[in-house]
Fold this protein.
Amino acid sequence: MKLEAKSATQSSAAKIKSKTYTYPNSQKLFRQALKVIPCGIPGHFSPAPFVPAAMYPFFAERAKGSRFWDVDGNEFIDYMCAYGPMVLGYNHPKVEAAASQQRQKGDCMSAPGKIMVELAEMLCSTIAGADWAFFAKNGGDTTNLAIMIARAATGKKKIVMIKGGYHGVAPWMQGYGHYGVIEEDVANIIGIEWNNVKQFEDAIAADPDGIAGFISSPYHHPTFADSEFPSQDYWQRIRELCTKHGIVLIIDDVRCGFRLDMRGSGAYFGFKPDLACYCKAIANGYPISALVGVEALRTVAAKVFYTGSYWYQAVPMTAALATIKELKRINGPALMNKIGKKLFDGMVKICASYGYDLKVTGAYSMPYVRITNDPSNMLHQEWCAECTARGAYFTSHHNWFVSAAHTEKDIQKTWNIVDDVCKLLKKKYGDAF
Amino acid sequence: MGYDFIKSRLHLYAVLQNIEDLVQYDEEAKNLIKDWNVTIKFSVKNSGKVYLIFENGKCTVSENSSRKADIVLYFTSPAHLNKMFDGKANPIPLKGITKLGFLTKEFPKLTQRLEYYLKPDEQKLKDNSFVIINTVMTLNTALFALKELLLFDPIGKHIAKKIKGSMLMMNVDKGPAVYIEQKGNDFEVHKGYHEKPMAVLQFKSMKIANDFLNGKMDAFSAIASGAVATKGHIEWLDAVSPVLDRIALYLA
């Protein structure tokens, strides 16, 4: 069946068909949570950035494929994919079978499972330029390890990062002004603008012998702002400067990793990082992250003491191996970008038919999406909330994620919801936007 | 900028402006000033100045005035002003010596009334009319203080760089509102509603606003539970949250 996104005129004057969800159980559970957990749900899963929070589910009950169900029984096509980790679909049979098999044998033991070696070999053979792999749990574990290695390797202190870039929640990553972060935590962090090689040159000129590392995502995907790809030759020039001045080039591929290219985002943009951080997409939801690096940094990486109680769990490693094999088999990044392109091209067309400009930036597999008509973002926030309350889980401030499990049926249903919500907003606001 | 300097700016520009609302909402204060026709200038060396203009039963608090001050209260330093607010020092009257009676008898009645509303306790908070006035004042104090902190506090200045072009409004649903707008390198604060705010933090009720602004409720819990609603450029609201929390470092 060939799917096409119908414009408002094509879909005639059909009435708004979809009903909105309610969340009494989520709300009740949240009130319960507030009594025993600071702010109920902390961190990036906090409902606080949802606008309005009351139109979003707070707690999930179960998930399968591209969808999840909340504690009120509402079903959502998930365009956040657990904020990235879900890449093949929730409860993917191959991944689950492999994980289950390993679980029978052992998971958290007094020595690593043999699977760790096989997984490292897989990463080294998959990611361009990777000569070794180190495993941890979260993306932030690997970005932090990366700068420790950079400092140990160079004997320098300073780290250059991109303003608005996100590398986790350690104090140096959060920036001065955030709760619990003191000036000393960021004393050796230099923030520069994305795509601005001149500022990097200036930073080097200001302290030629002081910069240990340059860390950045492969393209700029901040929250609350459009994503931006690197300008032509940007990465090549950054690579040259790093090589010339003995600066370790670190790519935070936690979000983009295996959503742009199985060879890594360095290969996608045509440059070779010294260290690359992976997490979200590598194990389809199982807790594991990996830092991969070049031969020249192997010995230093071996010297940096860095570990955690659960970093050697065999089950997540097995899940990662199964996930990567499956992603390679189906060429996951290409598939996700193909699905995303179809989905978002259709949504843009539907929105345009109502006079709404839906801007899609970044890769189709993880784009930042927003309606630009209202500079305050309130229209966009309302659009996201109304779509979510009808079953298409959209957040308004963070990039979305597409998985290999999103189907034609999901796309069609999403288009229908988008059409309904655009119709609703048009009726409510007329030509105000 | 030092602690005393910032604290003095908060006293001058965030605390004293509450007299405008005090004489509007509090009957006792309203009666007290109904016949006043006087302009009082607070002048603080190495900090700033502010005029309290009383006329026609109203008060206007402003950094500048077309009217000449009838009384000038001078403070030799920011610390001097701060000590006066702590009840440990007196100003130096440079002008208006003939109005000493007013200064020592009438004006203190008004400042005592202001102090009454700015220092809530459990007993006072059982009175709904107190809650309303205290909330209005706390709301306004928050944004007027925010301006000073964004300009002078070390963390505030750092945050100010991240919210270029910001405009955010705080209001109680069907109640008072105040907004702050960035203008170049400065900020302007206005009482009342903005026609098209870019970021909004709205409290469901006076009680919720009071609890929130007095640190009895954290923002994440309040927003998720629906007690507080945010919309628009919520990243700006998020960014200034730690700055708002710093008001207590100076005014507690």
Notes: The longest strand of chain A covers residues 211-216. Confidence is low (pLDDT under 50) at residues 8-13 of chain A. DSSP finds 13 helices and 13 strands in chain A.
